Amino acid sequence: MTDLKFEDSLARLEQIVSQLETGNLPLEESLRVFEEGVTLARHCARYLEEAEKRIELLTKDEAGALGTRPLVWEPEDEA
Known about the structure:
The protein has helices spanning about 5-20, 25-60. It has about 80 residues and is an all-alpha fold.
């Protein structure tokens, strides 16, 4: 599971939700797919938590305090 990319995990999770929402799967298959979905959801949550920690490390100032600053987006020049 750790080798799955976040985007791939999220896409599969969306497929699982669609499958379960239809209500056309037999009970055993629904349970199997649901279990896979829970595993994927936890994987995505861990990935996002780790990404948040990495961002916090990158945004600490010299004193080690987290600061906030507005995101200034500058569109690329279109040629």
